[in-house]
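The material for today's practical consists of a large collection of protein records. Getting from the letters to the tokens is the skill we practise here. To make this concrete, we reproduce a full record directly below:
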Amino acid sequence: MHKLGKILGISGVIGAVIVVGNKIVSLVKRYKENADKYYAFFLLENEWLKLKQMEVKIADYLLDCQYKKIAIYGMNSLGEALYRELINTDVEVVYTIDKNADGLNVHYCDVLKPSDELPPVDVVIVTPFIYFKEIHKSLSKKLSCPFISIQDIIYELIEE
């Protein structure tokens, strides 16, 4: 019996190590995904800064594409920066869309939820570009306009 107790005790320890190890692996994976996401945001913001230094304007790009009335999806730092860049241009931000619209303290424009009625616009610019496919898939059922990511706009302008 004494030997059986030791075996059961060791088995319990091994099981606990496996459970804890799996949790650690899961945490590390989630932290790496977040780090990759924020690194992609950093790189994009760096390219956007280069555009600003070269005096290249996103509004000119949008107008060249005949996008005069737009919606911005995502009011994170990129969405706010895009909104500020388009103030006092011929591009009208008709509204913004954010799944956390209720929790946002935005006084300068209408913030709608993806589930709200979304008025027609010429284009939706998606600022959380990492989730572009999912956002496009869900909103294209409600809007028939083109969807572009802020990443595509900035990298296209850098290449010109």
